[in-house]
Design brief:
By secondary structure, the protein is mainly α. The chain has helices at residues 2-14, 30-35, 47-68, 74-98, 103-121.
Length: 122
């Protein structure tokens, strides 16, 4: 009996039971997400804008999946969804004003999408 308590305590102390970051959602593989490309067409007129749009779609799908799996509460998923939508709208507005999305702006939007993905990927 004492051995069992000792083993459980040792496992907890070493973090053996700790969960690694989730990689089962496509949006959690950030290296791959940074290489995603999208297609130009419709309201998408720039390749970098297409990249942000595809990333936003993937992340919103992951948020929905995490919500259905009850990994996120409804309020968390709604908040994250709105943040992703805000990034998409900001990128679209930037392209509308200047007819292109600069590499620096794309990198900035990528970083924001990375931050939004963290709660989904834990």
């Amino acid at each position: 009996m004492n051995y069992t308590a000792f083993i459980v305590l040792a496992l907890v102390a070493t973090g053996v039971g700790a969960q690694p970051p989730r990689q089962d959602y496509p949006g959690c593989n950030l290296a791959e997400q940074h290489r995603v490309t999208g297609e130009i067409g419709g309201s998408i007129i720039d390749a970098r804008q297409a990249h942000i749009s595809v990333r936003a779609n993937i992340l919103q799908a992951d948020i929905g999946t995490a919500r259905k799996a009850r990994r996120l509460t409804e309020s968390q998923s709604d908040r994250l969804w709105r943040r992703v939508d805000g990034v998409r709208k900001a990128a679209d507005g930037y392209v509308h004003r200047q007819d292109f999305l600069s590499a620096a702006e794309r990198a900035s939007y990528d970083r924001e999408l990375d931050r939004i993905a963290r709660p989904v990927c834990r």
